[in-house]
Design brief:
single chain; alpha/beta; Rossmann fold; Nucleotidyltransferase, domain 5; 2 domains; 9-stranded mixed sheet; 7-stranded mixed sheet; 15% strand; elongated
């Protein structure tokens, strides 16, 4: 007799059996979790594998609250509370910048529409941020999970924080078509151009009216992107004050177009919040980290310990100090001698500086600047004369001597065109060796007088372009005794022309009979007294 064949078990029955086992395992897990929660007296709802759509933020135990993070008073608190669209938290090392960037997006993680992106330059640098987040995210939001393959945090509410790296500018195209409500970049100056930052701004959007959109960055001074970051966040305004976002190439405020309902208004605000080591009491009090920073070379020490943006590697004028060479604006007395100097350019930039001389110390003061592009000689003449309407009589004006060259033109030179309009100039010194001599004279003027504690050159704080350019102007690689002529040196050239005009507080050529008559008049015309 043949043995009875075994019945075939269908794939459907196998699947049903596995589902029962899975369901049984889940029930056992749920019971175990409830027992643990009861023992630990947990009040929050236990989250399982699937996201609960009815999730509510855990209630804090008011009797004995457990504080996971409390921001340091000062800049760290200002950064977390800043309402501006784009904020840079930058300056000295050890100020708590990176930790603030990790904590900042957590306030929105109760919203299932929240989608954040936090970036570092390389994957190795990213690991530190991930490690810090793993220490605090699960404690702040029980049930938050880190998915290594996706490099993403998911929260019980459905919110997401993506932590990844962006090594090259072209890599930013990976985010084409995606939308984020929060974008953070740690160590922004590691990017040599603003391309990635500008492109990521186009990915910032939301349809949820409860969610604002923000871009945040932290960084130390220095690095490949020092200059463009300085132009975007540091130069336009004093620290810790909101300002209208500007185009870093033209300096113009970014505005809504004419047909928009907000036509003429600025698109958004920016803000720079400076960081210092002393802001972080956990590092500052020990003193070991400060001692390490003090041992660094001069440039790195000023950048990482003092948080100075006015110094860069290979800078021609490393002695520039904002606290010594930049002064608050004031009304220049009419009796002080005034003059101006100009370096002209049409396709590039035109820089005009106005000078005065403090008669008590012979300190040279730059009290006004004009920095424009695509302006003809005649247009510039009218702009200059309009700016100095209330200045009284200027002693003289110094203009790049090359503007007297006609270069094959049959008409008047550019200098003659301005003079005809009533804006008078005299040619600058461009003889052999004048550039090196001018640079040496700038160095002499920047020195601090031990007796007066004042520099020989001071600049009004309203001259933002000169203040931004002078400290980071690089040396020439071909001639270390001169600056790099391929850099943005237009205002520096105007400064050099003005300084080399040998200004003094008064001159014998300032004498006029009308002036002297106004100073003294005899009581009796016959006897002369």
């Amino acid at each position: 007799m043949k043995p009875r064949p075994k019945r075939k078990v269908t794939s459907q029955r196998k699947l049903t059996s596995e589902e029962r086992k899975l369901k049984s395992a889940k029930l056992s897990l749920i019971h175990a979790q409830k027992k643990i929660a009861k023992l630990e007296k947990k009040e929050e709802q236990i989250e399982y594998e699937e996201v609960n759509p009815n999730y509510e933020e855990p209630r804090l135990n008011k009797e004995a609250p457990h504080i996971l993070f409390e921001p340091n008073k000062g800049p760290q608190t200002d950064f977390l509370a800043a309402p501006e669209r784009e904020v840079l938290y930058g300056g000295a090392a050890g100020g708590g910048k990176s930790f603030a960037l990790i904590v900042d997006p957590l306030r929105y993680c109760t919203n299932n529409n929240f989608n954040a992106l936090i970036l570092r330059r390389t994957n190795d640098e990213l690991r530190e941020l991930i490690h810090k987040s793993q220490d605090i995210y699960p404690k702040a939001f029980p049930g938050a999970k880190w998915m290594e393959k996706k490099s993403q945090w998911t929260f019980p509410s459905g919110a997401r924080i993506w932590m990844t790296y962006l090594e090259q500018d072209k890599d930013v195209l990976r985010y084409q078509g995606q939308a984020f409500t929060y974008i953070g970049v740690d160590e922004l100056t590691q990017y040599s151009t603003p391309y990635a930052w500008d492109y990521l701004r186009s990915r910032l959007r939301t349809a949820d009216p409860k969610l604002p959109v923000y871009m945040r960055a932290t960084t130390n001074p220095g690095g490949p992107g020092h200059i463009w970051v300085k132009k975007m966040f540091i130069d336009p305004s004093v620290p810790n004050r909101a300002f209208a976002a500007t185009d870093i190439e033209t300096g113009k405020i970014l505005q809504y177009p004419d047909r928009h309902t907000k036509a003429g208004q600025s698109l958004f605000k920016r803000r720079f919040i400076p960081a210092k080591l002393m802001d972080n009491p956990y590092l500052a009090e020990a003193g070991d980290y400060e001692a390490m920073l003090l041992s660094l070379p001069e440039v790195q020490r000023q950048q990482l310990l003092e948080g100075s943006w006015d110094i860069a590697e290979g800078a021609a004028f490393g002695e520039f100090r904002r606290d010594k060479h930049v002064i608050p604006s004031f009304n220049v007395p009419s009796s002080w001698r005034k003059f101006r100097a100009c370096d002209y350019g049409y396709s590039s930039y035109t820089g005009v500086l106005w000078f005065t001389v403090d008669p008590s110390t012979d300190t040279l003061i730059v009290y006004r600047e004009l920095y424009v592009t695509k302006v003809t000689a005649k247009e510039l003449a009218h702009m200059v004369m309009q700016a100095e309407v209330d200045d009284g009589n200027l002693s003289y004006g110094v203009l790049d001597s090359s503007l007297w060259h006609k270069r094959g033109d049959t008409g008047p030179s550019l200098a003659e065109q301005m003079i005809v309009e009533g804006c008078r100039w005299r040619p600058s010194d461009r003889s052999r060796g004048s550039r090196v001599a001018g640079k040496n004279e700038v160095h002499r003027r920047l020195k601090i007088n031990d007796e007066t504690d004042r520099a020989g050159l001071e600049i009004f704080d309203s001259c933002t372009n000169l203040i931004a350019q002078l400290p980071v102007l690089p040396l020439s690689k071909q001639n270390p005794e001169d600056v790099d002529t391929k850099a943005e040196d237009h205002l520096y050239d105007a400064l050099r022309y003005g300084i080399m005009s040998r200004p003094v507080s008064r001159s014998i050529f300032d004498y006029t009979p009308a002036t002297e008559a106004a100073k003294w008049s005899p009581a009796d015309a016959t006897f002369g007294y």
